[in-house]
Amino acid sequence: MRGTVTGGLQRIVLAGVGGRDGVEWAHRSPTLTSMSRTRYRIVLGLLGVTFIVIVVGSVLILPEGTPTSLPGPVRELSPRDGDLVLRQAKIEFRTDPAYRASFVIDGVSIPDDEVITMAGTGIHVYQPGPGKTIEEWTPGFHVVEAAWDTVSGLPDPGSITWSFRVQ
Fold this sequence. Notes:
- By secondary structure, the chain is mainly beta.
- It has three domains: about 1-35, no CATH class; about 35-65; about 75-165, Immunoglobulin-like (Sandwich), CATH 2.60.40.1220.
- The chain is about 15% helix and about 40% strand.
- It is built from one helix and twelve strands; from the N terminus they run βββαβββββββββ.
- It has one helix at about 35-60, and strands at about 1-5, 10-15, 20-25, 75-80, 85, 90-95, 100-105, 110, 115-120, 125, 140-150, 160-165.
- The strands form three sheets. The protein has a five-stranded mixed beta sheet, with no helix packed on it. Strands 4-6-10-9 form a four-stranded antiparallel beta sheet, with no helix packed on it. The protein has a three-stranded antiparallel beta sheet with strand order 1-2-3, with no helix packed on it.
């Protein structure tokens, strides 16, 4: 018995009686076959799309640059140094609750009565508006200096300066 494989069928040649050969066709036994070109392309395409989604997602979600360490009693500030913000942005500055803060924006001192201070939380907020020292953010860069000191007890003054851009 001799055998040759053609396509999905196996050709088996049987030695017959009287010198005549007989031919039978039988299916190959199921084995693991290689991927077809179409399936291979689909798998590679899906892997490529997955990679692109992961990279783009990482760039959009993760923060840029190195984290900035904030001095002393400062816990958080917003917008961050170098941020791009909309015109309705407000400045939020958080310190330890035992401190008070004041702002100088673009060289203009902001009166304390225009700064919203949430007692016991250390949150200080300034938002431009009608009748305030700064009525609205103009497009471009703005420099903020926040100065702080303790509300009571020994003085512990300090300041931080940062900038952001309004689009």
